[in-house]
Automatic annotation (TrEMBL):
Pfam families tied to this protein: Abhydrolase_6
Entry's EC annotation: 3.1.1.24
UniProt-listed InterPro entries: AB_hydrolase_1, AB_hydrolase_fold, AB_hydrolase_sf
First-level EC class: hydrolase
Ranges for domain AB hydrolase-1: 5-221
Molecular functions per Gene Ontology: 3-oxoadipate enol-lactonase activity
Keywords: Hydrolase
Lineage: Bacteria, Bacillati, Actinomycetota, Actinomycetes, Micrococcales
Name the UniProt record assigns to this protein: 3-oxoadipate enol-lactonase
Alphabetical list of SUPFAM superfamilies matching this protein: alpha/beta-Hydrolases
Keyword DNA repair: no
Entry keyword annotation includes 4Fe-4S: no
């Protein structure tokens, strides 16, 4: 059986967020509290999300993870290495910088609701030109966030506050393509840090802000297709590509 392409998006995003990309057939994952799904009954953890994915996907997957999705992809590869053939990790990180601040932000979200968070998120996630270039995609994200539960958003931020895979990244012996959004100002330097630690990684920079898959769907599709060709052709393991 060949590997299935598995798409893990950023927080608040549903399966429709990939519709502007040009990809081979893929499984678009929907996290608890996202899309039509209820919140995780026993609380959302990074390990729990990864384990649920592992329990559902076929033998092997090529994982594409953006932002929160890139975090989940790391837990999947660490906890269930046999299930991951390769990864594309975009605009993501190996560790949250300030867990205490994230936990207090999460508590504040639960009381304030989604309203105050939508415009700032659009500002971080897209380049200014996005409303002209990809108006439907920006509108989709805005509409999704307006309907989204602040508790579900807070669940993700609280779970991410515990995130730190730095000491374990050297165990991931799969080919990884890392993607930097050239205009991504969230966690600057985080992709370089992943590149330094992941033994079989290569790195691309493409125009785009934090949610590079929605901000630059054409450019990100091209990277994924290049990645799949690289892996299908036996991505040279043990060799660090720059
Ligand atoms: O919203 C951000 O700036 C960072 C982020 C947290 C989870 C996610 O997917 O992006």
């Amino acid at each position: 059986m060949t590997a299935e392409l598995l798409l893990l998006p950023g927080v608040t995003q549903d399966a429709l967020v990939w519709q502007w990309m040009d990809l081979p057939p893929a499984r678009a994952w929907v996290y608890p509290g996202h899309g039509d799904r209820g919140r995780a009954q026993d609380g959302l953890t990074l390990e729990g999300v990864a384990d649920e994915i592992w329990s559902v996907v076929p033998t092997q997957v090529d994982v594409v993870g953006v932002a929160f999705g890139g975090v989940i992809a790391q837990y999947l590869a660490l906890r269930h290495p046999e299930s991951v053939r390769s990864m594309v990790l975009a605009c993501t990180t190996a560790a949250s910088e300030d867990g205490q601040r994230m936990r207090s932000n999460a508590e504040e979200m639960r009381t304030r609701g989604m309203g105050p968070y939508i415009e700032p998120a659009i500002g971080r996630w897209f380049r200014r030109s996005a409303r002209e270039r990809v108006p439907d995609a920006v509108a989709h994200i805005e509409n999704t966030m307006q309907e989204f539960s602040a508790d579900a958003y807070a669940d993700v931020i609280a779970a991410m506050s515990e995130h730190d895979t730095r000491s374990r990244l050297s165990r991931i012996d799969r080919p990884v393509t890392l993607v930097k959004g050239e205009q991504d100002r969230v966690g600057e330097g985080a992709i370089d840090a992943l590149h330094a630690e992941l033994p079989h990684s290569r790195m691309f920079s493409i125009p785009g802000a934090h949610m590079v898959h929605v901000d630059n769907p054409g450019g990100f599709s091209a990277v994924i297709r290049d990645h799949l060709a690289w892996v299908d052709n036996g991505a040279p393991l043990g060799k660090k590509l720059g």
